[in-house]
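User: Hey, quick favor. My workstation is busy. Could you predict this chain's structure for me?
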Amino acid sequence: MMMHRLMFALSFGAVLFGCSSVPPEEMLGTALQEETHAREMADTVVDAAARARLFGPAVTAYEELLEAHPNSAQAQEGMFRLATIYNNDIRDFSKAVAMYRSYAERFPQGEKTAVAMFLIGYVYHNELQMLDSAKVAYERFLNTYPDHEMAISAQFELNTLGKPPEDLVPKEDAQTPTVAQGKGGS
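Assistant: No problem, here it is.
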């Protein structure tokens, strides 16, 4: 009976303290290594499911960091990198938006909070074609960061919601002489 209590106490202690016994710096380092390895291989993988599997170890490592050290500076970096993986590499745009939103909520004064808020609108607009959600996100960004370097881009995106790309390129003026017209027969 005494042996069972000792084993239970040791097991319980390992569960309580085992998750966060690895320092956040080390966990971030491991996640970065996994991400780097995946990026090195990613150029050769075009299948979406295969890319998701390739980035799986990095995703897991970042998620473990976030769970073990949720308010650390390393978690802040890890959460933004995880959102970027979902957005750019795995191309799971719904998860990317959720992760960018979580980042902005958890780290309102974070180094990349403004970028995360802009990217929420960008992904809604350009990837998910959810124009109402994009409009809300861009307006929120502009209200929160009116002087941010990305404010011009956010205003452009807001002004062009739903417009096809061909409508955004200035049309050549019919009166402008072309090279062939400009060459006279002298």
